[in-house]
Amino acid sequence: MTVKFDILQEDDRWNNLPIQAITDQVSAVMIFPDRASEVSVLLTNDAGIQNLNNTYRHKDKTTNVLAFPSCDPAGMLLGDIAMSYDVMQIEAEERGIPLRFHYAHLLTHGLLHLMGYDHIQDDDAQKMEAKEEEILRQLDIPSPYSAE
pLDDT per residue over 34-64, tens digit each? Predict the structure, then answer.
């Protein structure tokens, strides 16, 4: 199934990455629910993601990625994903990985959340991490968890 990504860039630093190419690569290896046809992606910065995190999760702090599954299970929109360039860049530098690898990982992580995966409980986290690793492996991206 083909999913359309509606990408909105709020920060020009995202131009440092081939966003559409990486998004297309991730999308090509993902298996989406039959009903899904669109995902909205907001590429923002620390201020933007902190505002969203505070507004919708009541956590007044930055984070790397937020995912908001669609409230209409029969609808065509799978959901919304927001990412902070600032947090993504810091995490990539700390881990010594290319920024494009980390973007692919965060996009994959967000998409899995939209499809019902979670990491609150340890066993759920292991399932989600395994699925992330499986998808990233298909893109020749090393596991983001092997160095942790």
Answer: 766 899 999 999 999 999 999 999 999 999 9
pTM over 0.85: yes
How many alpha carbons lie under 13 Å from residue 54 in its C-beta half-sphere?
Answer: 9
Residues 6+ apart with CB under 8 A from 58: none
Cα gap 57→63, rounded to integer Å: 11
Instruction: Give the up-direction half-sphere exposure of residue 87: CA atoms within 13 A in the CB hemisphere.
Output: 18
Please choose, from the candidates 28, 64, 37, 44, the residue with its C-alpha nearest in 3D space to the C-alpha of residue 136: 28
Q: In whole angstroms, what is the distance from residue 125 CA to residue 69 CA?
A: 18
What is the spatial distance between Cα 137 and Cα 144, in angstroms, rounded to a whole number? 10
DSSP 79-121: EEEEEEHHHHHHHHHHHT--HHHHHHHHHHHHHHHHTT---SS
Is residue 56 within 8 A of residue 66, CB to CB? The reply is: yes
